[in-house]
Each structure stands twice: as structure tokens, then as C-alpha cells.
Specification:
Blueprint: H1 4-31, H2 36-55, H3 59-76, H4 84-105, H5 115-125, H6 164-167, H7 177-218, H8 224-244
Helix pairs in contact: 1-2, 1-4, 2-3, 2-7, 3-4, 3-5, 4-5, 7-8
Length: 245
């Protein structure tokens, strides 16, 4: 059975790693705004976080990551130019992602979508960004190094844990971005394969019902061919049930 809590812990841990790398890459981009390698790196990381959060049904992070991805794509294509004001907005977007990751690790899987920063990023991607008109809410300075999700046992001065999810934050596994992409793809294939198998089982059941109806119409319980056909349908039914169990 799909254990979402364990995957959430891994998702938060890996996404925090991406947040740290995103900040480092954005700092590089400030100094070298036309560096294609850095632009592509930020785009890929935003795309990875978007895909993973979408798979985990974390709409707020998926939406914000998508907006960041669109802005980076516009930069890559030369539709917009990088500047100080744009850099501030990008850093703000990354900070919001980290904030939502902290909320999720504290036990709330449904943080609110940061609509203000999302709307701003959407306008930027469309080329509607005017530096003088940008006004984002003030936030505390963002540290350059994010705190890892795996923490040692807390002392008496630490706040109480609010959920079982937080208590599992010691179980972390680090994965490279390409490995996370492979995991997302594999999980999608598993879900798709399971759905196809369920449909096949339904088809087999339908065939079995039709054969029973046909058998009743034939009215000869001793017919060997008929019994063999029914037995074959039952065997297929049992095999598929074992496959799905």
C-alpha cells in the first residue's frame, strides 16, 4: 500500500536540497545573468520540484514551482531580461517554497497558495513586469544555508512535535535530481500499470459472467468444452487477483 507519509518525508528532504541549490544558482545568476548553464540548472530544479509536488498532490508548491519554471523559461528564450528587481522576486519565490516545506514537515499537507508572488511571477513570464511597480510583502532575511530536515533528539526547550509526520523526519534519504525524476516516472508507471490490471480483471469478470449466461442458455451441464471454458475463465480471474493483491 502507498505510504504517503514516508514519501512526504523524502520529498521535503530532497526539496530542501533543491532550495539550497536554487539560492546558490540565483546568486550566480545575479553576477552572470546570461549564463545558459545556470539558467538551465534553475529551470530543471524548478521543474523537478514541480513534478514531485504535483505527484504528492501538494498544490501550493506545485503551483509556485510552475510559475518559477515559466519565468526561467522566458529568461532562457530571451523574452525577458534579468535584473535586480527580478532577482528579488525569484529569491522571494524560493523562500516561499521553503516556508511551505516547513509547514508540511510540521504536519500540515495543505499550505495556502501564495497568490501574490504567484501572480507576480505570472506577469513576469508574460513580459508584463515593471520594476518600479513591484511591491512584495516584507519578509525576514533568508539565511543562505537551510536547516536540514533530519534533526537530533530535541531537548526540553524544544517545542512539542505536532504530528506523526514530524516524528519520522529522521528517516531521510538523499537522492540526486535525476534519480528523483526517475522515481517520479517509475511511480507513474506503477500507478498506470495497476489501473490497467484492474481494468483487465474487470474484463475477465465480465467474460466469466457472459460465459455463465451462455452456459445457462446451453442447458447441458455435462458438456466438457463448456466446463473447460469456464475453468479457463476462473483461472484467469484467480491469476489476476493474485497479481493485484
Amino acid at each position: 500500500m502507498f505510504d504517503k507519509a514516508k514519501f512526504l518525508v523524502r520529498f521535503v528532504s530532497e526539496s530542501k536540497e533543491h532550495v539550497l541549490k536554487l539560492r546558490e544558482s540565483l546568486l550566480t545568476l545575479e553576477k552572470h545573468p546570461e549564463d545558459d548553464d545556470t539558467l538551465n540548472s534553475v529551470f530543471r530544479m524548478a521543474h523537478t520540484v514541480k513534478g514531485a509536488s504535483k505527484m504528492m498532490k501538494l498544490t501550493a508548491i506545485s503551483e509556485l514551482s510552475h510559475k518559477l519554471e515559466d519565468v526561467m523559461d522566458a529568461l532562457r528564450q530571451g523574452k525577458i531580461r534579468h535584473g535586480k528587481a527580478l532577482s528579488d522576486v525569484l529569491f522571494k519565490g524560493v523562500a516561499e517554497i521553503e516556508k511551505m516545506l516547513d509547514i508540511i514537515s510540521a504536519g500540515n499537507e495543505n499550505p495556502e497558495i501564495p497568490t501574490e508572488i504567484c501572480d507576480c511571477l505570472e506577469k513576469i513570464a508574460k513580459g508584463e513586469f515593471i520594476e518600479e511597480s513591484v511591491s512584495l510583502p516584507e519578509t525576514p532575511p533568508v539565511p543562505e544555508i537551510s536547516v536540514p530536515i533530519a534533526q537530533p533528539s530535541a531537548t526540553g526547550s524544544s517545542p512539542p512535535q505536532s504530528s506523526s509526520l514530524t516524528n519520522q523526519t529522521f528517516e531521510t534519504i538523499r537522492l540526486r535530481a535525476d534519480k528523483l525524476d526517475e522515481l517520479i516516472k517509475l511511480m507513474g508507471e506503477i500507478v498506470s500499470g495497476h489501473s490497467r490490471s484492474k481494468q483487465r480483471l474487470s474484463d475477465i469478470r465480465h467474460i466469466e459472467r457472459l460465459m455463465r449466461q451462455h452456459s445457462d442458455m446451453m442447458g447441458d451441464p455435462g458438456d466438457k468444452f463448456k466446463e473447460e471454458m469456464l475453468q479457463t475463465a476462473k483461472s484467469l480471474h484467480i491469476a489476476l487477483k493474485k497479481l493485484l493483491s
